[in-house]
Write a structure and sequence with these properties.
- By secondary structure, the protein is mostly helical.
- The chain folds into two domains: 2-226, Rhopdopsin 7-helix transmembrane proteins (Up-down Bundle); 244-373, Arc Repressor Mutant, subunit A (Orthogonal Bundle).
- Helix content is 68%, strand content 0%.
- The protein has 18 helices and no strands.
- Helix 1 (2-21) runs antiparallel to helix 2 (28-52), helix 2 packs antiparallel against helix 3 (60-67) and helix 12 (260-277) packs across helix 14 (298-309).
- It is elongated.
- This is Helix-turn-helix domain-containing protein.
- InterPro entries: Homeodomain-like_sf, HTH_AraC, HTH_AraC-typ_CS.
- Pfam families: HTH_18.
- Keywords: DNA-binding, Membrane, Transcription, Transcription regulation, Transmembrane, Transmembrane helix.
C-alpha cells in the first residue's frame, strides 16, 4: 500500500504539473500551481529514494525543508488567482527566503548529504528530530493560510458591487476549499509524524502520509485545472456619449428608474456571466433566459446593452459565438468539422445567420478566413 501511494502520487503530481503549467490561457497563476505540484512531486520522489535504498530512517530534514515551500506556494497562488499580474512580482521572491535558509542550514548541519546516501542514513541515526519544529511549522502554515484568506476577503469586497456570488468562480469558494483542505491534511500529516517521532508504533505511516498528500494533489489538480486567473482591475463600461441624432434613444429610458451606477454594475455582471458560463453556446438563448440567470430585469438588460455596452442583444451574443468559431476554424482539432458543424457548435442556429454575422464581424467569409490563416 505504501508503494502504491508513493508511485501514484509521484506520477499524478508530475502529470498535473505539466498539464496545468501549459494550460491555456498561459497565466502566472497556472505556472505557480505547476511549480507547486512539482514541489509536491519532489516529496514523493524523496520517498521513492527511501524505498530504493531500503532506508528505515525518516528523511525528515529534507522533507521538512521541502515542505516549507508548500504554504508559500498556496499564498502566492491565491494572490495571483485574484490579481491581474502578467508577470511574477520580484517582491514575492522574498517569501522563498525561508526555503533558501533551510537548504543552507541543511547542507551546513548535515554534511553527509554531500557524501552519499549511506553516510546520510548513518548520520540520521544520531540526529534526534526536534518535535518543537513541528509546532513552529504548524504556526508557519496557519500564518500563510490566513494571509491567503485575507486576499480572498479583499477580493470579495472589491467585486461585491459588480458580480453575483452565485458563481463558484467569482465567490472563490473553490479556493477556500483548497486552503481548508491544505490546513486539515497537512496538520494531519504533522500530527502523525510527531506521534511517530515520539515512538508510537506506526508500521504503515508512509501510507497514511503519502495517501493524504495524494488526496491533496487530486484536489488542487481538479480545481486548479478548472479555474482561470480572475480579473480584478474592474473598470466600468464606457457610457454611451450620444450624438445629437441619438437623443430619442436616451429619452427612451428616462423613466426606467435605473441609475447610472446600477447600470454599470449590471453591465459588468452580464459580461462576467457570458465570459464564464458560455451560455451563448445555447442557440435558444434569449433575454428572458439571460435575465433569469443573472437576476437582472429583462427591460434593464436591454437598456444596459444599448446604453452601456452599446450593442443590441443579437450583436452582444453573436460576438461570443463568432470568436469561438474563429478559433475552431483555424484549429487542426476541428478539421473534420464543416462550417455548418462549427456554426452549430458555436451557438448559431443556422448556416445563413452564421455566414452573415461572421462576415460582418471579420470582414471575410468563413472560407476566406480559413484560407488566410492556413
Amino acid at each position: 500500500m505504501d508503494i502504491a501511494f508513493i508511485y501514484i502520487g509521484l506520477a499524478q503530481s508530475l502529470f498535473s504539473a505539466f498539464i496545468i503549467y501549459f494550460k491555456k490561457p498561459r497565466n502566472i497563476a497556472n505556472r505557480i500551481l505547476g511549480f507547486w505540484l512539482l514541489a509536491i512531486g519532489g516529496m514523493f520522489a524523496l520517498n521513492v529514494v527511501k524505498l530504493h535504498y531500503e532506508a528505515t530512517q525518516d528523511f525528515w530534514p529534507i522533507s521538512l525543508t521541502l515542505s516549507t515551500s508548500f504554504p508559500i506556494f498556496l499564498y502566492i497562488y491565491t494572490k495571483y488567482v485574484v490579481s491581474d499580474y502578467s508577470t511574477f512580482q520580484r517582491i514575492d521572491y522574498l517569501h522563498f527566503v525561508p526555503l533558501l535558509v533551510g537548504c543552507v542550514v541543511l547542507i551546513y548541519f548535515v554534511p553527509s548529504l554531500t557524501q552519499g546516501i549511506e553516510e546520510f542514513k548513518e548520520e540520521l541515526n544520531n540526529i534526534n528530530s526536534p518535535n518543537e519544529v513541528g509546532y513552529v511549522f504548524k504556526l508557519y502554515i496557519w500564518v500563510y493560510c490566513l494571509l491567503a484568506l485575507i486576499f480572498i476577503i479583499n477580493y470579495r469586497r472589491k467585486i461585491k458591487n459588480y458580480f453575483s456570488f452565485q458563481s463558484y468562480k467569482n465567490s472563490l469558494n473553490w479556493l477556500i476549499f483548497i486552503i481548508v483542505s491544505f490546513l486539515v491534511i497537512y496538520n494531519y500529516i504533522i500530527y502523525i509524524s510527531t506521534k511517530y517521532y515520539l515512538g508510537a508504533a506506526m508500521p504503515h505511516i508512509e501510507a497514511f502520509r503519502s495517501g493524504a498528500l495524494l488526496l491533496f494533489v487530486y484536489i488542487i489538480s481538479f480545481w486548479g485545472f478548472k479555474q482561470n486567473q480572475l480579473a480584478t482591475n474592474i473598470r466600468s463600461p464606457k457610457l454611451n456619449f450620444l450624438k445629437k441624432g441619438d437623443e430619442s434613444e436616451s429619452k427612451r429610458y428616462t423613466k426606467s428608474g435605473l441609475s447610472p451606477k446600477k447600470a454599470e454594475q449590471y453591465a459588468l455582471r452580464l459580461i462576467d456571466y457570458m465570459d464564464h458560463s458560455e451560455a451563448w453556446k445555447n442557440n435558444e438563448l434569449n433575454v428572458a433566459a439571460l435575465s433569469e440567470a443573472t437576476d437582472i430585469p429583462k427591460h434593464h438588460i436591454t437598456q444596459v446593452l444599448n446604453e452601456n455596452i452599446q450593442k443590441n442583444f443579437y450583436t452582444f451574443v453573436n460576438e461570443y459565438r463568432v470568436k469561438l468559431a474563429m478559433e475552431m476554424i483555424v484549429s487542426p482539432k476541428y478539421d473534420s468539422l464543416s462550417f455548418v458543424g462549427i456554426a452549430f457548435e458555436s451557438g448559431f442556429n443556422s448556416k445563413t445567420a452564421f455566414n452573415i454575422f461572421f462576415k460582418k464581424y471579420t470582414g471575410m467569409t468563413p472560407t476566406e478566413y480559413k484560407k488566410k490563416h492556413s
